[in-house]
């Protein structure tokens, strides 16, 4: 049903919609996934189904796999039944490592619950007319990863995509994906296996297939940076960018050195992020906002605010001026008796047992009431 696809575009939330899938298909991609869809929302919300799948039906967008995140067998199957007429297979996301997946109890945070996964895959395999596939992350131990893959195959999974990173490898700690794990899984199962991780150019695709023996290779960020990745050439946008500005001198990326490709993107790994203290170029949020305000292009958040209020302006010269606190420089209270901000006023009023009606601080009044009450009680006892 998937036509022997070898070059695969990964499911990417807010990225791999119909337009990007068609663009990737024109440049060599042979199979695409939808973005991850929430099974429970897909079942109960007709507009969600319409916006994310039904309105994106296109003859050129095949073969196509619809990916769901779910943690309930019945809900997963209900969602898959509603989607099966619009795709060639249904995928269960067992690889998302993000915090939202931890809170929602899906993705890579189900990889220890083998009984639940067996029931989900088995029920879907029995009820659906299209194949059931899974996308997983690996365990640190190769043996446990192999047993995990064999369990999914036995439950009814008909195609397995293995991302060679653990669920802890994300963001700045992504590091390099382990092709050894993928190779071990490929040897241990009889179903087709796709590899995911370390794919930034066509040479990476060919080397991965050669080294691991997988039937296909999936690319996420590599495809996102270059939709012509599977075609083995630079995108037109890349060409224009390189013509517009000279390339910096210095050593090429590891990927370029390994493949002999001068435009290969660097692989992601642990290290200082842009703007971090280790990078030496940290800038405050206020500085970035001021920099944005000096340009003609507004940030996304400011564009949203301007849509809600077309008359809103972000000109720094038009911002209201606030009188500063005499001690810390923060805006002072307009009715503060000490001409201070609330924090400094509270400290001073407490120290001097004074009142500040402007900030609602009544230390003097409360002290007088307390002393009066003690006098009443003392007289009564005497």
TrEMBL record:
Question: What do the Gene Ontology cellular component annotations say?
Answer: cytoplasm; nucleus
SUPFAM superfamilies assigned to the protein according to its UniProt record, in alphabetical order: FMN-linked oxidoreductases
Q: Where is the DUS-like FMN-binding domain?
A: 9-244
The record's annotation in InterPro entries points to: Aldolase_TIM, DUS-like_FMN-bd, tRNA_hU_synthase_CS
Instruction: Cite the CDD domains for this sequence.
Output: DUS_like_FMN
Q: Where in the cell is it found?
A: Cytoplasm; Nucleus
Q: Name the Gene3D superfamilies for this protein.
A: Aldolase class I
Q: What is its EC number?
A: 1.3.1.88
Superkingdom classification of source = Eukaryota
Q: Which reaction does it catalyse?
A: 5,6-dihydrouridine(17) in tRNA + NAD(+) = uridine(17) in tRNA + NADH + H(+); 5,6-dihydrouridine(16) in tRNA + NADP(+) = uridine(16) in tRNA + NADPH + H(+); 5,6-dihydrouridine(17) in tRNA + NADP(+) = uridine(17) in tRNA + NADPH + H(+); 5,6-dihydrouridine(16) in tRNA + NAD(+) = uridine(16) in tRNA + NADH + H(+)
Record's compositionally biased regions (Basic residues):
301-311
List UniProt keywords, sorted A-Z.
Cytoplasm, Flavoprotein, FMN, NAD, NADP, Nucleus, Oxidoreductase, tRNA processing
Q: Give the matching Pfam families.
A: Dus
Cofactor section: FMN
Keyword check for Cytoplasm, yes or no.
Answer: yes
Spans annotated as Disordered: 242-315
Entry GO MF terms: flavin adenine dinucleotide binding; tRNA-dihydrouridine16 synthase activity; tRNA-dihydrouridine17 synthase activity
Q: What class of enzyme is it?
A: oxidoreductase
Which purpose does this protein serve, as stated in its record? Catalyzes the synthesis of dihydrouridine, a modified base found in the D-loop of most tRNAs. Specifically modifies U16 and U17 in cytoplasmic tRNAs. Affects the level of some mature tRNA and thereby the total cellular translation.
As for family, the record states: Belongs to the Dus family. Dus1 subfamily.
PANTHER family, from UniProt?
TRNA-DIHYDROURIDINE SYNTHASE, TRNA-DIHYDROURIDINE(16_17) SYNTHASE [NAD(P)(+)]-LIKE
Q: What is this protein called?
A: tRNA-dihydrouridine(16/17) synthase [NAD(P)(+)]-like
- Please name the source species: Panthera tigris altaica (Siberian tiger)
């Amino acid at each position: 049903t998937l036509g022997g696809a070898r070059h695969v575009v990964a499911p990417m939330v807010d990225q791999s919609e119909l337009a990007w899938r068609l663009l990737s298909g024109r440049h060599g991609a042979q199979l695409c996934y939808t973005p991850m869809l929430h099974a429970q929302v897909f079942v109960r919300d007709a507009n969600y189904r319409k916006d994310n799948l039904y309105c994106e039906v296109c003859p050129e967008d095949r073969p196509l796999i619809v990916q769901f995140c779910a943690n309930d067998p019945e809900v997963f199957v209900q969602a898959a039944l509603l989607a099966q007429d619009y795709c060639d297979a249904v995928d269960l996301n067992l690889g998302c490592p993000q915090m939202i997946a931890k809170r929602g109890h899906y993705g890579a945070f189900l990889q220890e619950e083998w009984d639940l996964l067996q029931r989900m895959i088995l029920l879907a395999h029995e009820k659906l007319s299209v194949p059931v596939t899974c996308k997983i992350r690996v365990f640190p131990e190769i043996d446990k990863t192999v047993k995990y893959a064999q369990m999914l195959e036995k439950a009814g999974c008909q195609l397995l995509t293995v991302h060679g990173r653990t669920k802890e490898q994300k963001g700045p700690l992504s590091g390099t994906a382990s092709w050894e794990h993928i190779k071990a899984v490929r040897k241990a199962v009889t179903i087709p296996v796709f590899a995911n991780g370390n794919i930034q150019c066509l040479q990476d695709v060919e080397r991965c297939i050669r080294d691991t023996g997988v039937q296909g290779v999936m690319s996420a960020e590599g495809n996102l940076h270059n939709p012509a990745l599977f075609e083995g050439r630079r995108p037109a946008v890349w060409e224009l960018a390189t013509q517009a500005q000279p390339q910096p001198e210095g050593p090429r990326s590891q990927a370029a050195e390994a493949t002999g490709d001068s435009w290969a993107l660097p692989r992601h790994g642990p290290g200082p992020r842009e703007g971090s203290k280790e990078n030496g170029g940290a800038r405050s949020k206020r500085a970035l906002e001021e920099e944005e305000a000096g340009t003609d292009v507004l940030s996304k958040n400011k564009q949203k605010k301007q849509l809600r209020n077309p008359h809103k302006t972000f000109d720094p010269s038009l911002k209201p001026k606030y009188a500063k606190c005499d001690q810390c420089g923060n805006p002072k209270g307009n009715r503060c008796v000490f001409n201070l901000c609330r924090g400094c006023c509270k400290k001073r009023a407490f120290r001097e047992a004074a009142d500040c009606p402007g900030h609602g601080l009544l230390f003097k009044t409360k002290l007088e009431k307390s002393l009066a009450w003690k006098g009443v009680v003392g007289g009564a006892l005497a």
